[in-house]
Design a protein that fits this description.
The structure holds two protein chains of two kinds.
Chain A: H1 12-29, E1 36-41, H2 45-60, E2 66-69, E3 84-85, E4 100-108, H3 112-124, E5 129-137, E6 149-153, E7 161-165, H4 167-170, E8 174-178
Chain B: H1 2-34, H2 78-95, E1 109-114, H3 120-131, E2 135-140, H4 152-160, E3 166-171, H5 176-183, E4 187-193, H6 199-213, E5 220-224, H7 231-242, E6 246-250, E7 265-268, H8 271-275, E8 280-283, H9 299-306, H10 310-315, E9 321-323, H11 336-339, H12 346-366, E10 369-370
Parallel strand pairs in B: 1-2, 1-3, 3-4, 5-6, 5-8, 6-7, 8-9
Helix pairs in contact in B: 2-6, 2-12, 3-12, 6-7, 6-12
Classes of the chains: A alpha/beta, B alpha/beta.
Chain lengths: 190, 375
């Protein structure tokens, strides 16, 4: 995890602003929508989804259910990684059939996580529509997937590291970018 | 200087003697380690003459404990067992979804190689594989070339040559899965080897009990019945005690193998005296096909002394949790009414079996657990 000794690319106060901006964009787009729900992609998408839900309930004055999705079992590189990733389990305890579902993740990068999340979500039912919200878009897409709502775009190379820290998981909000040149970073984006 | 020469001689002799002694003691444990795996000598029963192939000779090293295969609970530590059970929790949630299939093992092929009959275990593995999107081929010895005299090893090698990723093996000879694991490249899961072990059954038993009781730590678990012929009992004893439970056994003296206490359990011969002390009673099947004629007098007497009857439970003033690995001989080790009580977990065991086997297949087909970051 990124150390807070470094200067964050996006400060804690700025992260709060970005989340608020995402919330109001989601609200504007889904005004009058009675069946809005949020699904966070584990792990850091989940606290983000919870923050957004709290804000959306105030803005839209309806209950916005929050679910969590773990895409481990849907990864397309399970055969390639040497170690089996830890499975955390998905919890969506509401019916997503006919609902508008906003997938929430901290960062969108290659698009493969989103692809896996879409496949898994469709195994839970048939939503009316799926939208995607990401706090940071760091580019370098490998699949034709674009987020509907983006907090902030940060131009990065494939070997750079982007660390998103959230109060709920890391104690403090902040986005850290480590620029690296040359060889491809192990593990890609974090 | 004759005296000093003599003392030097004596000293040398003493040194040599000591050296030889230490050599002997050093070799002893190694010889022990090379002896076949089962701690409790599986009881004498005569496995039908089986063709194990030319390599099935004694004296070979047992396979290294590895997570490439699941051969017995004996090889697993508490952490590993809990890891499998936690994973099974996730898969149980998957099974409750509208579409209970995940693509985790897409493109993998698993073969059920069953040389003994089975309903639950083989269909459970079959379902587990298909819920993980793996392909599963079931093989039963009855209709195969085993009938023409093909050996176990040849059969397994030929199936492996069809590029499969894993074999689930059940065989009447203890150690048959271990034997295959040493010689094949694919992973091997022991689905019951003679009277030795049945690890996935023990895991699903532990999972089911953990689900009901929260944790096995400090719980008293009594296994009742035909301990001698039960691979489930051996795996259960190891699994439950590794998870912190206290295990006791009860049954007719002829069906309790000598030395079983070495696995860390107590032995009782009167069910009525011990039943009120325990939290869980695990009934075992009377294995008529393995028991000779002389091990207990009559079924009626067995039922009276060791059967979990309605009357016996009615007399008990506390609720014990009941398990049975199945198939049940109704009216022998257990009454039908008993299985329908709320404290009976017999059907939960079957349901959980699929989730536990999904966890086992997922962990073996994917390698060891570790943290990998998403892209």
């Amino acid at each position: 995890m990124a150390s807070f000794a470094r200067k964050p690319a996006v400060s804690a106060a700025r992260v709060k602003k970005l989340v608020e901006k995402l919330g109001s964009e989601i609200a504007r787009r889904n005004r009058g929508e009675k069946s809005l729900s949020l699904v966070g992609i584990k792990r850091r998408g989940v606290p983000l989804a919870e923050r957004l839900a709290a804000q959306l309930e105030k803005l839209l004055k309806t209950k916005v259910p929050v679910g969590a999705i773990d895409i481990t079992l849907y990864r397309d590189d399970l055969q390639l990684v040497a170690e089996t990733p830890v499975v955390r389990g998905s919890e969506i305890d509401f019916d997503i059939n006919g609902k508008v579902v906003v997938l929430v993740d901290d960062v969108v990068y290659t698009g493969r996580t989103v692809r896996a999340a879409l496949t898994e979500l469709l195994d839970f039912g048939r939503p009316k529509a799926i939208q995607l919200a990401a706090l940071v878009d760091r580019g370098n897409r490998e699949l034709p997937i674009e987020p509907t709502f983006v907090g902030r775009k940060i131009a990065t190379g494939p070997s750079d590291l982007v660390d998103i820290c959230l109060e709920e998981t890391d104690g403090k909000d902040g986005v850290f970018v480590t620029r690296r040149t040359g060889r491809k970073a192990k593990g890609g984006c974090r | 200087m004759p005296v000093s020469k003599r003392t030097a001689d004596v000293r040398r002799q003493k040194r040599e003697a000591r050296l030889q002694k230490s050599k002997a003691t050093r070799q002893e444990p190694r010889a022990k380690a090379a002896s076949p795996k089962p701690i409790i000598p599986p009881p004498a029963p005569t496995p039908k003459t089986q063709n194990l192939g030319p390599e099935a000779l004694p004296g070979r090293q047992p396979p290294a404990v590895s997570r490439k295969h699941l051969l017995g609970i004996e090889d697993l530590g508490r952490k590993e067992i809990e890891g499998i059970l936690d994973r099974a929790e996730t898969f149980l949630a998957v099974l409750k979804r509208p579409i209970p299939v995940v693509p985790a093992l897409r493109g993998k092929t698993i073969v059920n190689l069953f040389f003994e009959s089975s309903t639950r275990t083989s269909s459970s593995f079959n379902l587990a594989a298909s819920r993980l999107s793996a392909q599963c081929l079931s093989f039963s010895a009855g209709t195969s070339s085993v009938k023409k005299g093909e050996t176990l090893l040849d059969t397994a090698r030929n199936i492996e040559a069809m590029r499969v990723d894993g074999l689930v093996v059940r065989h009447s000879v203890p150690g048959a899965p271990h034997f295959l694991a040493r010689r094949l490249h694919c992973f091997v899961v022991n689905a019951g080897d003679g009277c030795h072990e049945h690890p996935t059954q023990a895991l699903l038993d532990a999972f089911t009990l953990r689900q009901r009781l929260g944790s096995l730590d400090g719980k008293k678990i009594l296994l009742v019945g035909d301990i001698a012929h039960s691979r489930v009992a051996r795996s259960d004893i190891l699994c439950f005690s590794k998870l912190g439970a206290r295990v006791a056994l009860c049954g007719p003296a002829t069906l309790i193998p000598r030395g079983i206490e070495d696995l860390g359990c107590e032995v009782f011969y009167s069910l009525d005296r011990v039943l009120y002390e325990v939290d869980v009673v695990g009934m075992l099947r009377v294995q008529a096909e393995r028991i000779g004629s002389s091990l207990f007098p009559t079924v009626r007497e067995y039922r009276q002394l060791y059967g979990l009857t309605r009357e016996r439970l009615a007399k008990l003033d506390k609720s014990v949790v009941i398990t049975h690995p199945g198939p049940v001989n109704w009216g022998v080790e257990m009454d039908y009414e008993v299985s329908e009580l709320p404290q009976s977990l017999v059907m939960n065991q079957v349901t959980n079996g699929v989730a536990v086997r999904m966890a086992v297949l997922y962990l073996l087909a994917g390698g060891s657990e570790g943290e990998v970051q998403h892209g």
